[in-house]
Amino acid sequence: MNAEYSFRARIWLYEGQGAWHFVTVPTKISAEIKAAANGRTKAWGSVSVTAMAPLGTRWKTSLFRDTKRNAYLLLVKAAVRAKEQWRVSDWAEITLLLA
Question: Which of 46, 53, 75, 91 could cross-link 57 (Cys pair, CB 3.0–4.6 Å)?
Answer without folding.
Answer: 53
